[in-house]
Amino acid sequence: MRYAAFYLVAMFLGFAAPAKAADEAPPPALAQPLPAAAVASPVEETPGFQAVRTMEAPPPVAAPVVISEPPPAPAVPVVAAPPPPPPPPPLAAPTPAMSMDAFSMPAGWLSALMLVLGAAIAGWTGTVVAKSLYQRDEDRRLAAVRSILGVELEARRQAFEAVPVPPNAEAGVSFVSAVAALADMDTGWRAAQASLHLLNDKQASHLSVHYSAVRYVANFVKGQSFAAALRMLQANRIGGNPCPDPAAMREAHVELAAAFRGVDKIIQGLKG
Questions:
Q1: CB-count burial class (<10 Å; 0-12, 13-18, 19+) for 179
Q2: Which of 30-34, 159-163, 193-197 has the lowest mean pLDDT?
Q3: Which of 27, 106, 168, 209 has its Cα between 20 and 30 A from that of 52?
Q4: What is residue 178's predicted lDDT score, i.e. its pLDDT?
Q5: What is the rounded CA–CA span in Å between residue 163 and residue 176?
Q6: What SS3 state is found at 42?
Q7: What is the pTM of this model?
Q8: In terms of Cα–Cα distance, which of 184, 237, 231 is closest to 211?
């Protein structure tokens, strides 16, 4: 019985050992080289035996090429893309009833209206500019007329103060020459005739009356003096003073004073 048990244990170990060796053995290679002793030992020649060529060892397998991966790129901050713009509203398709003429007519009327409006504005601007230029020219002419007449009237007024009163024959001769010279001081008045309308009606009328009165008195005095000189020639009184009647000369002086009575107001009005 003891030998039977030992035999069973030995059989169990014998079966278990190859299984364990098979588990622990390395995986079988594709081609295992023959031992050197078997290659080196001569093969016994047997009649009709063909030697089996030994399997050459396979070439060494090259080591797999390891491709190194590129280093990872630095992380780029991701910027949120702006939201896409809203799609434009769909264009309304023109109705077949409306034609191109319906669109072109308002544009034509608008262009015509703009042209008319531009012409009106240009005309109004030109009129305003022309009026302003004309008014400026009229103001300059008026200022010149006022200045000329004011200076001339002031000179006539001072000359009238120097006119002698004719009490006798000598004074009468001086009075005649003074009145004739005073009447000839009207150069400014003749030059202002074309611009006399620039003055107001009252000033123009007063100036006309003054110059007319002085001219009338001067013509009367010169006529009286010519008559007196003619009488002297008829009486063979050559070399005397052709003085008219002193009474007529005093009357002429009164008329001349009346012509200069309101000249101060006229001068003040022209200067103001």
A1: buried
A2: 30-34
A3: 27
A4: 87
A5: 9
A6: coil
A7: 0.52
A8: 184
